[in-house]
Design goal:
Beta-lactamase Inhibitory Protein, Chain:B, domain 1; Outer membrane protein assembly factor BamE; signal; five-stranded mixed β-sheet; 3 domains; single chain; 293 residues; transmembrane helix; alpha+beta
Length: 293
């Protein structure tokens, strides 16, 4: 798009130069040729310039029809081809959000969560196709999803601690907690997403072992927490570590992604977690770095 803009601008400037050349008698013929020629270039540039890089009237927006076009497994490039650039991005959790247009509610949104390969893992919406749940304390005692996030964060901190030490830097164990309605099943169950800073005061495969232990301990705590008065359809964990790339640059990145779905959560023997083989039973178990060194 910028190429056509530059071409259009240059053509316009040269056309102006041609108009000035019309004034002196000696350059009048040349000026006429330049003016006409580059005026035509301007018209052609404008005609063939591609349309705006987003399909709707405003960038970062999405309609109900567009939301239905987005399917699990799509790449980010494919989604951009359909929707244009998102309204906002959260690179820490690999999430994009778009503002809704003409949804069932005035303020609506759609969010897209990507896996480590930047392919769509799942999508969520609020107010676009379905109404956003609201809680009126005077008439409804059912907690909102945001209320559950505090209960979950507290349960995690009670189970594995509030802080972790990264090279003498104290960091909160819990980065972010999300609770989302399972719109696909519409059975009142919810999806729990937890983003955690992992333990690094270990070497080699010791990190993986500790992550496995804490993942199971958190699953036990959440499935047995009476304050979470809903069916847990799945718990997905993103464990972050300070990882160093081949160029020697260290950056906080997702090191493990683990997902436990309802059937798996129900079959775990929580009374003897030491014998649970998490990599085998997990519905998703991704190690995103070499933890065998």
């Amino acid at each position: 798009m910028w190429v056509f803009s530059v071409l259009f601008l240059l053509s316009g400037l040269i056309t102006i130069v041609g108009l000035f050349l019309l004034i002196p008698k000696k350059t009048r013929t040349k000026g006429k040729q330049i003016s006409i020629g580059f005026f035509l270039v301007c018209l052609v540039s404008y005609a063939i310039a591609p349309e705006k890089s987003y399909p709707n009237d405003e960038p970062g927006t999405i309609t109900k029809a567009q939301y239905k076009q987005i399917k699990d497994g799509m790449t980010k490039d494919k989604i951009i081809n359909i929707l244009g650039e998102p309204h906002s991005k959260d690179d820490d959790i690999n999430e994009w959000e778009y503002s809704g247009i003409n949804g069932v509610e005035k303020k609506s949104y759609a969010s897209f969560h990507f896996d480590p390969d930047d392919k769509l893992e799942f999508k969520l919406e609020g107010g676009l196709l379905s109404k956003i749940e609201t809680t009126d304390a005077s008439t409804n005692d059912v907690p909102a999803n945001e209320d559950y996030t505090y209960d979950i964060e507290f349960a995690i901190e009670e189970t594995i601690g509030e802080n972790v030490n990264w090279d003498d830097e104290s960091k909160d164990v819990v980065k972010k907690v999300e609770v989302n309605d399972n719109i696909g099943k519409n059975d009142g169950s919810k999806l729990i997403l937890v983003h955690l800073n992992g333990p690094i005061a270990l070497t080699g495969s010791g990190v993986r072992q500790k992550v496995n232990e804490q993942t199971l301990e958190i699953a036990k705590a959440l499935t047995q927490d009476d304050s979470l008065d809903f069916e847990i359809d799945s718990i997905t964990y993103w464990w972050y570590l300070p990882l160093t790339d081949s160029y020697g640059k260290t950056k906080e990145k997702t090191a493990y992604k683990i997902s436990l779905e309802r059937d798996t959560l129900e079959n775990i023997n929580y009374e003897d977690l030491a014998y649970v083989d998490l990599p085998t039973i997990a519905n998703q178990y991704n190690v995103l770095f070499n933890d065998q060194e």
